[in-house]
Every structure is written in structure tokens, then in C-alpha cells.
Automatic annotation (TrEMBL):
PANTHER family: GLUTAREDOXIN-LIKE PROTEIN C5ORF63 HOMOLOG (PTHR33558). Keywords: Electron transport, Transport. This is Glutaredoxin-like protein. The keyword Electron transport applies. InterPro entries: Glutaredoxin-like, Glutaredoxin-like_YDR286C, Thioredoxin-like_sf. Belongs to the glutaredoxin family. It comes from the Eukaryota.
Length: 78
């Protein structure tokens, strides 16, 4: 049997108290019903465990003063 294909992964960069992020999460949940993908929520002020300091600092510097709400990165290979 061939290996199961990996699902695309979407990383949603969020911030605390982000109402637009809440809307995006709701809409993404609906899309996942018909188009499966993995989702990672990344709070730029508290990055996921295992994140390198360099990556955490990169995103914090990019969005610490102005968070572009609901920025997402979709990758089919990661």
C-alpha cells in the first residue's frame, strides 16, 4: 500500500485578543471540512514549543508593533 500523502500545513500567525483571527479560525475550520489540511496557530508573543530563538525573534520583530491580523503561510511540503 502506498504511503498516505501528507496534508498541506497552514500556519496562522496570530496575536492575543484578535477578533479577526477568531473569524479566520472559524472560516478555516469550515474549509477544513471539505479540503483537509493541518493548521498551526502561532501566537507571535508566545511561539510554539520547539521554535528556535532565531525564528521567534524574526516573527516578533516583524509584527511586534503592528500585527497584520490573520497572516497565514500555507505550505504543502512542510
Amino acid at each position: 500500500m502506498p504511503p498516505k500523502p501528507r496534508l498541506p500545513r497552514l500556519t496562522l500567525f496570530t496575536g492575543p485578543h484578535c477578533s479577526l483571527c477568531d473569524v479566520a479560525k472559524t472560516q478555516l475550520a469550515a474549509v477544513r471540512q471539505t479540503h483537509p489540511f493541518d493548521i498551526v496557530l502561532w501566537d507571535i508573543r508566545s511561539p510554539p514549543a520547539g521554535t528556535s530563538d532565531a525564528d521567534a525573534n524574526k516573527w516578533r520583530r516583524a509584527y511586534q508593533y503592528e500585527i497584520v491580523r490573520g497572516v497565514a503561510c500555507l505550505s504543502a511540503c512542510c
